[in-house]
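debug: dumping io for the single-chain case to check the tokenizer round-trip. Nothing else runs in this session.
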Amino acid sequence: MIRGRAWLFGDHINTDLIIPGRYLDDYSPENLVKHVMEAADPSFAKQVAKGDIIVAGRNFGCGSSREQAPLALKLAGVSGVIAVSFARIFFRNAVNVGLPVIICPQAHVLLRHGEDVEVDLDRGLVRSVLTGKELRFEPLPKFLVEILDNGGLVPYVRERLREE
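debug: decoded output
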């Protein structure tokens, strides 16, 4: 279960809006967090709190294949991204770094900016804490949830190798 404040964004939020390429000469967490989402919402980096959830429209994460985009969101404290759809490479990169990504086409209509949201990854449920309204989504496959639960692909593989 993840719970946080909703940040609403529209369609086609590309990786350059998430973390502008001009800041990628320094991959330090401090640098990425300082500039995350600044091209889409200049207040985001200063106001985002641990656990917050991004809610967006279609094609979230389109653009380049830069892995730093979902990593910057995770480092900033974002606990998940809910969108109508994702660019495929962003979806995979997000799972690889341990950032939950949820396809829920009606979430951007139901939820309001700043309201508390709960997401039950196992049951496939998004709920507005304010209104109590719920939306269902197709739960992620078990193996993807296991990767997310381990914090990403590399920790997941390390854990699997330890088990063998």
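debug: round-trip ok. Residues 98 and 149 are 7 Å apart (CA to CA).
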